[in-house]
Amino acid sequence: MSKQADSHDTIIILDFGSQYTQLIARRVRESNVYCEILPYNSAKDMVLARRPKGIILSGGPASVYDEDAPKLTYDILQEFQCPILGICYGLQVIAADLGGVVTPSTNREYGYARLRVTDKNSPLFMDLPSEMDVWMSHGDHVIKVPEGFHVTAQTADSLNAMEGLSGRIFGVQFHPEVAHTPFGKQILQNFLFKVCEAEADWSPQAIVGEQVTRIKALVGNEKVICGLSGGVDSTVAATLVHEAVGGQQTCIFVNTGLLKEAEFETTQSLFKQKMHLNVVGVDASGDFLSALKGVIDPEEKRKIIGRVFIEIFEREAGRLGGVKYLVQGTLYPDVIESISVRGPSAVIKSHHNVGGLPERMKLKLIEPLRELFKDEVRTIGRELGVPEDLLGRHPFPGPGFAVRILGEVTPDHLRLLRAADLIIEEELKLAHLYDSIWQAFPVLLPVSTVGVMGDYRTYERVLAIRAVTSVDGMTADWARLPHDVLGRISTRLISEVRGINRVVFDVSSKPPSTIEWE
């Protein structure tokens, strides 16, 4: 059981595979209520152990009548006494489970619809207009509610909300968690506060004191090392642990050979001068490049990098002597994407510090940010006094440029990518766009194209530019960079980076694409 769940009112989100599940969690946490995402088929004892104030059943892509459709594996609706809210597929699961009727829609609803509230006494719709726009995305719909339920809202095409079992179980066909439902956040807050009577007592800042106390008790007088990458996550994790145990922590900053230009030298200096952390630099570029030689598969790259990282940390721990713990900046999205905590959702990719870890490790992990989203981590960083120039950095993956080179990682490929990365960052800062973009970076494609430079034919590599806007990295939209900025970047890349003769711009969002290409 998590520390946060133990000390705060908790909402459990049971995931049925919706692409919006993370958005539900974000909306709950934005309301200062702690929540966790668990698979729809989580063991009953696992859910009960968290003593939930309420349970939300997410949407999902399946039909309740599919042979392998995800369903509740025990009688949560009857046995749990806390309020339950089903969203989209979650509504249909409730209806089907309790004897209602669900059928395929003759007119599949996708996009905006006009909702009319038919029960103004429903706590879900309290203090809201009697009509409102909502966002729909479903193929099936409920045509008959279970016994003991009544319809509370409907659209022109179907009933769209119901409640029953003495006002404890609720369902909505639309998606209140998305921005396209203007009153969605208030609907969710009505469920949290009017129905569940949850306390709004959770915030990222509150975690600082809780984690400091927990880490002190856990570590005692033992030594700790922290895997420091120079990114926001590991920086905040190191600062938080330093707050708890001070000089007992040694930060290990590893030169993987996969870092940005001059990153190894400048970051060490920054940490020592501004953060006053005990930082030890280790040049292990040869270890990583040797282990990656000839490797093309992205999953294999990530797992190799995770293994080599641990080998180096354990080697440094042995040199320091008496080290029992390893601190990592693992975040909630890392866990979600690596371990498929979302029910039927597939593993997206192994993060080097989650799915890439070896099965047996000599060091015990401390992951103080494991249940947080990126924006929450930045909030904690400000609370701890981490400099804004560190907190404002664009995310950089732990595997570094290895996952931005599609194909084998070689010194020449790294040279191209480092030079390109510098140009993109410089131009975005000159255009005052860097801080408004979540992440922007080059990707080296395993493709060569014909070009002409001067009077000569060239046959060189294609470089893709990826730039996205996001709040927490769980969803992202491609950044609408001005054409003149893109033009300057492209011109500089082709003229200044020998080996590149074509530049393309990625205009895909997450989902369906991920932010990183590998």
Characterize the structure shown.
This protein has 518 residues and is α/β, with parallel strands linked by helices. The chain has 3 domains: 3-195, Rossmann fold (3-Layer(aba) Sandwich); 204-391, Rossmann fold (3-Layer(aba) Sandwich); 404-505, GMP Synthetase, Chain A, domain 3, CATH 3.30.300.10. Helices cover 34% and strands 25% of the residues. A 9-stranded mixed sheet has the order 2-1-3-4-9-8-7-5-6, sandwiched between helices. A 5-stranded parallel sheet has the order 12-11-10-13-14, with helices on both faces. The two termini are 32 Å apart.
The total number of structural domains is 3
Largest sheet: 9 strands, mixed
Strand content: 25-35%
Number of helices: 16
Question: What would the keywords be for this entry?
Answer:
3 domains, 25% strand, 518 residues, 5-stranded parallel β-sheet, alpha/beta, GMP Synthetase, Chain A, domain 3, 18 strands, Rossmann fold
Q: In brief, what are we looking at here?
A:
Helices cover 34% and strands 25% of the residues.
Give the topology, please.
Blueprint: H1 3-7, E1 10-15, H2 21-30, E2 34-39, H3 44-49, E3 54-57, H4 76-79, E4 84-87, H5 89-97, E5 101-117, E6 131-144, E7 149-154, E8 159-164, E9 169-172, H6 184-195, H7 204-219, E10 223-228, H8 232-245, E11 249-255, H9 263-275, E12 279-283, H10 285-292, H11 298-320, E13 323-327, H12 332-339, E14 364-366, H13 374-383, H14 388-391, H15 411-430, E15 439-453, E16 456-469, E17 477-478, H16 483-496, E18 500-505
Parallel strand pairs: 1-2, 1-3, 3-4, 4-9, 10-11, 10-13, 11-12, 13-14, 16-18
Antiparallel strand pairs: 5-6, 5-7, 7-8, 8-9, 15-16, 16-17
Helix pairs in contact: 7-8, 7-13, 8-13, 10-11, 15-16
